[in-house]
Amino acid sequence: MADTKHSAMMCGAFDADGKMIGIVFETATPFDMPQRMTELVAWLNEARELRRLHPLLIIAVFIVVFLAIHPFQDGNGRLSRVLTTLLLLQAGYAYAPYSSLESIIENSKESYYLALRQTQTTVLTDAPNWQPWLLFFMRALQQQKRRLAVKVEREKNALAALPELAVKILD
């Protein structure tokens, strides 16, 4: 990911009254954003083709850099979760749409923002610190998969309680 000489846009944190309480991280400028997104997608395609990194690592890096670029004024977080599901499906993780990553992130917002901030402040440096984000991301995916396993088990138990004819109809 190329370094940029243009000044970055600031992404702030706001209190309940809408007052800015601080800068969380700097995003790409509108001038730099198209180039940064082009570079990110090119990196994604190359990383997938080379297969040197596990697909989950590729997805995690793509998402944290996408969020650092912050291409839209609003909705980047929600879009990143949709992109995560798409990239997981493309990588063969068929479970992804059946369990909500959105709710997992919503329930751990503080950890989410901390991991994002810790990694994003280093993304454009010579030594990015991917660890905070990778740990958060992998734990979130693990929790997503666990929640799905619980749902599947509940469904199995519900089916077991049905009469044989009802199970045949459902099949």
Your description of this structure?
The chain is 61% helix and 8% strand. It is mainly alpha-helical and 171 residues long. It has one domain: Orthogonal Bundle (Fic-like fold), CATH 1.10.3290. Strands 1-2 form a two-stranded antiparallel sheet. Helix 1 packs antiparallel against helix 2. The longest helix has 30 residues, at 131-160.
Summarize the structure.
The chain is mainly alpha-helical and 171 residues long.
Structural class: mainly alpha
Can you count the helices? 7
Strand content: 5-15%
Number of strands: 2
Order of helices and strands: EEHHHHHHH
**Could you tell me the radius of gyration in angstroms?**
19 Å
Identify the overall geometry.
elongated
Helix content: 55-70%
Q: What are the low-pLDDT stretches, counting only 5+ consecutive residues below 50?
A: 1-10
CATH architecture: Orthogonal Bundle
| Name of the CATH first level | Mainly Alpha
CATH names the topology as Fic-like fold
* Biggest sheet architecture: 2 strands, antiparallel
Number of discrete domains: 1
Question: What order do the strands of the largest sheet run in, or round the barrel if closed?
Answer: 1-2
Element layout with pairings:
Blueprint: E1 9-14, E2 20-27, H1 33-50, H2 55-69, H3 76-90, H4 101-107, H5 109-120, H6 131-160, H7 164-170
Antiparallel strand pairs: 1-2
Give a quick set of tags describing it.
disordered N terminus; 8% strand; single chain; Fic-like fold; two-stranded antiparallel sheet; mainly alpha; 171 residues
